[in-house]
Write a structure and sequence with these properties.
Blueprint: H1 6-17, E1 34-40, H2 54-58, H3 62-69, E2 72-74, E3 77-78, H4 84-93, H5 97-100, H6 118-124, E4 128-133, E5 146-150, E6 163-166, E7 170-173, H7 179-193, E8 200-205, H8 242-245, H9 251-254, H10 270-278, H11 294-329, E9 336-342, H12 361-364, E10 368-371, E11 380-382, E12 386-387, H13 391-398, E13 427-431, E14 443-447, E15 451-456, E16 462-467, H14 484-500, H15 507-515, H16 525-528
Parallel strand pairs: 1-8, 1-9, 2-11, 3-12, 4-5, 4-8
Antiparallel strand pairs: 2-10, 5-6, 6-7, 9-10, 13-14, 14-15, 15-16
Helix pairs in contact: 3-11, 6-13, 7-11
The structure holds 2-deoxy-6-O-sulfo-2-(sulfoamino)-alpha-D-glucopyranose and calcium ion.
Length: 533
């Protein structure tokens, strides 16, 4: 794609606004559209107050909500493979996991950065581009003029003493600031020192609130004078759902000592200390004292988990507020598109769980708030069915840049203004990683506005069907009771999506994808020496 001048940018932005009756006299005043894409890690929509859940009323996110107040709250945005690296790879490429090649975090290799990604298109069209924070794709980011990404702890980064790699070369260890604060400061610094003759596209990506949920010390006392309510499905017994019954992500049975912030006994070797802290991952029983067990222990674990999680969210909300203030104070708010999302959803005790991966609603659905003055009206609520592969095409479309036909995702920009917009009637899902972590059976499926059909195919052959209107909590699998007509209709729809997305492999071929082991070579500091930058 050829570079274009900034005069052309102005034209493109004008046309992208599709604003009626513009005259050429107005042209010189119009500025090109900037983009700030904010993404947290594992931030559940239930923990954003704009989505209105019970817990978020007690732990509001006023700054994140500002994005929806000035733009749109999207209520039907879905992840195509609900784990970190795969979701990020799909967002960058606009393609499903089996097409972009990054479909597992564990033994799934590194991201092929030579592929076409949406940041590359912004960069090729004269934007200054940057990614700061969590990346988790192994290889050095491509398509960015500046990158500063977390590299320690297998690319996850840590909350304290995180290590960042700058432009694939220099590694720095953050000695004082919490990871959220370091990323917040770095983004504002990057904005302040950017080349102001160009428009910018910034990816602002937090580690928080990912496991092991370690908040900044300034939030340690938050929520200490009350308890959060447990979700309706907290004591789910997984009746009628074989795959769910085999999980290893229960609050009661799989949170470990590290998650609960216990301190390992002194005198242990580093290895033994790590083992001591990881105790509980595999269902081993432990209790912080002699009196807590049974239901009381489960309740105690939940409160510790949810409070630390929401304290981490509090830091993210503050950091988002700082960015929004910066844009407003520097005259950038009117021509900057802002997105807030998470790489996937997360369980906050629903079905008794933490973590993600399942096609059940809490981990499948992504929070998505978007603001673009002049195009999206304030306080819009959208129920359009969207997939994460649509993000890149949409951002390009807003900026007036061409979306390559090789991207499987589609822009939903025109859904905000065009009353005749024809959106999707179903979204597609496919998850592969097994058994690590958390023993979630590989599965694929579709969701329409009324039904969800899922197939768990790896070491079982189980179908699940939910009537989402009657059973939004997905507790009642009606696959065996549903009419043949309904099952046939949904399976036909599923098959046609698999063909459309070129994911119509045989079950045996799909199993091979899960079993394939591709070593990863993260850009961790000690490995960098051996790698070419
Ligand atoms: C770590 C976590 C898992 C989590 C994965 C994937 N364990 O391995 O609980 O599912 O990350 O998360 S931990 O003990 O190391 O925290 S993802 O966001 O990268 O997909
Ligand atoms: Ca994640």
């Amino acid at each position: 794609m050829k570079k274009i001048t900034f005069f052309i940018f102005s034209l493109l932005f004008l046309s992208s606004c599709s604003s009626e009756n513009k005259t050429s006299l107005e042209l010189p005043e119009k500025k090109p559209l900037n983009v700030v894409y904010i993404m947290a890690d594992d931030h559940a929509y239930q923990a954003i107050s704009a989505y209105g859940s019970k817990i978020s009323e007690l732990a509001p996110t006023p700054n994140i909500d500002r994005i929806a107040d000035g733009g749109a709250l999207m209520d039907a945005v879905y992840c195509t493979n609900s784990i970190c690296g795969p979701s990020r790879a799909s967002i960058l490429t606009g393609n499903l996991s089996h097409v972009n090649g990054f479909y597992k975090n564990v033994d799934g290799g590194d991201f092929d950065g030579s592929q076409l990604t949406f940041p590359k298109i912004f960069q090729q069209n004269g934007y200054e581009t940057a990614v700061i924070g969590k990346w988790h794709l192994g290889t050095t980011p491509t398509g960015f003029d500046y990158s500063k990404v977390l590299v320690n702890w297998g690319g996850q980064g840590t909350y304290f003493h995180p290590q960042f790699c700058i432009n694939g070369k220099d590694t720095v260890t953050e000695k004082t600031r919490h990871s959220t604060k370091a990323i917040e400061d770095d983004c504002v610094n990057w904005l302040s020192s950017r080349d102001t003759s160009k428009p910018f596209m910034l990816m602002y990506q937090f580690k928080a609130p990912h496991r092991d949920w370690r908040p900044d010390s300034i939030y340690h006392e938050l929520f200490s004078d009350f308890d959060f309510p447990e979700p309706e499905t907290f004591n789910d017994n997984y009746f009628g759902r074989l795959a769910a019954s085999e999980n290893m992500m229960e609050i009661e049975n799989h949170l470990n000592r590290r998650d609960m912030k216990l301190i390992a006994p002194s005198g242990l070797s580093r290895r033994d200390s790590m083992r001591w802290l990881a105790y509980g991952d595999k269902g081993q029983f432990w209790s912080p004292n002699d009196t807590l067990n049974g239901e009381a222990l489960k309740k105690w674990k939940y409160q510790k988990y949810i409070k630390d999680y929401l304290r981490c969210v509090k830091g993210v909300d503050r950091a988002v507020g700082r960015l929004l203030d910066y844009l407003e104070e520097n005259g950038l708010a009117e021509n900057t598109l802002i997105v807030y999302t998470s790489d996937q959803g997360f369980y906050l005790g629903e079905h008794g769980w933490f973590d993600k991966r399942w096609m059940y609603e809490e981990s499948f659905k992504m929070p998505f708030l978007i603001k673009c003055p002049g195009i999206i009206d304030s306080n819009t609520v959208s129920n359009e069915l969207i997939m994460n592969i649509d993000f890149g095409p949409t951002l390009l479309d807003f900026a007036g840049l061409d979306v390559p036909s090789t991207m499987q995702g589609k822009s939903f920009k025109s859904s905000f203004k065009n009353e005749n917009y024809m959106g999707r009637d179903a979204v597609y899902y496919h998850y592969y990683e097994y058994p690590l972590w958390h023993k979630v059976q590989p599965h694929y499926g579709i969701k329409t506005s009324k039904y969800k059909l899922m197939h768990f195919y790896y070491s079982m052959d189980e179908w699940e069907l939910y009537d989402l209107e009657k059973d939004p909590n997905e507790m009642n699998n009606i696959y065996k009771d549903a009419s043949e007509e309904l099952i046939t209709k949904l399976k036909t729809q599923l098959k046609s999506l698999q063909i459309e997305y070129k994911d119509d492999f045989s079950i045996e071929e799909m199993k091979v994808m899960t079993d394939t082991v591709i070593q990863r070579a993260y850009n961790e500091p000690n490995k960098l020496k051996n790698k070419k930058s």
